[in-house]
Design brief:
Blueprint (H helix, E strand, L loop, with lengths): L5 H27 L18 H6 L8 H29 L7 H10 L5 H14 L9 H23 L4 H8 L4 H29 L3 H4 L8 H8 L7 H42 L1
């Protein structure tokens, strides 16, 4: 049996510490959310129960938990759909090296390095100075797109750089129109990547704080509501909320991954059936 070097154990220990650093806070919050009715915000735990999860579904004295959740969910869907559509359109457009494409590319990517709070401040000022309402569905929506669109475009650029154009040429040779080629050839091939862009768009929007801070208006999204609760809630109900929102995030990721798996399995089955039909 090959003897492992000391470097292997050092790297293994570093990886374990990294996982603890990454998931330790989430695990801690999850454990503390199961405190008994007399439990506090720190260890040691005072009993074990589901009391604080039940309390979440009671009328809260402060905040608007479920209203903020609905707003974050709706905003996440809006950002997700827009990110997917614009990213695909941008990826198709950048396949043609049009005049100014390089400058436009760097302008898009620049928004990733601008401090998020400055983006939020700038978008909020533009809306307020223009006489428009600062609202989560308008200014908040726009500020979040400055965060999600660059990621979506980068993914689409990578996808189309590796895309085999012979599929499109074959479709055109068969008489397909440009729209039919995109709909029946391009989109089915890049569908798993579109799922990835959609996942990026939704999750980045769902937990975005800084770019929504000054653009949400009078109604908080869920991250803003949770932040507000940290200043006036002194019970483990906030941990229960954190546990449920984390579980919801993992559920969303699982749904997207299962969708990709189902699409790949269906494609493999169709390829197998086509191969058997040719025999």
């Amino acid at each position: 049996m090959e003897k492992r070097s000391r470097a292997f154990y050092v790297l293994a220990a570093f990886f374990v510490l990294f996982l603890l650093f990454l998931y330790g806070p989430i695990i801690t919050i999850g454990i503390l959310s199961f405190q008994g009715p007399q439990g506090g915000l720190t260890f040691p735990m005072n009993g074990v129960s589901l009391y604080w999860f039940r309390d979440l579904f009671q009328e809260q004295a402060v905040g608007d938990i479920w209203g903020s959740f609905r707003r974050s969910f709706a905003l996440g869907l809006m950002v997700m759909v827009t990110t997917v559509v614009v990213s695909v359109m941008g990826g198709l457009a950048f396949r043609k090296r049009f005049a100014g494409s390089a400058v436009l590319f760097y302008l898009v990517i620049t928004s990733l390095v601008i401090p998020s709070i400055l983006v939020s401040l700038g978008v909020g000022l533009i809306f307020s100075q223009s006489g428009l309402d600062v609202h989560w569905a308008t200014s908040g929506f726009g500020s979040q797109l400055t965060w999600t669109l660059p990621f979506g475009l980068l993914i689409m650029f990578a996808v189309f750089n590796r895309f085999d154009k012979s599929y499109e040429e074959a479709a055109r040779d068969q008489g397909a129109s440009p729209w039919q080629t995109i709909r029946h050839v391009v989109l089915p091939i890049i569908a798993p990547s579109l799922i990835g862009v959609a996942l990026f768009g939704f999750t980045l929007s769902y937990d975005e704080f800084a770019r929504t801070l000054l653009t949400a208006g009078s109604y908080n999204t869920l991250p803003l509501e949770i932040y507000g609760m940290t200043t006036n809630v002194t019970t483990p109900v906030i941990f229960a909320l954190g546990t449920l929102t984390t579980a919801f995030s993992f559920l969303v990721i699982a749904v997207f991954l299962l969708t990709v798996w189902a699409m790949n399995r269906r494609r493999a089955r169709q390829g197998s059936d086509a191969g058997q039909g040719m025999v």
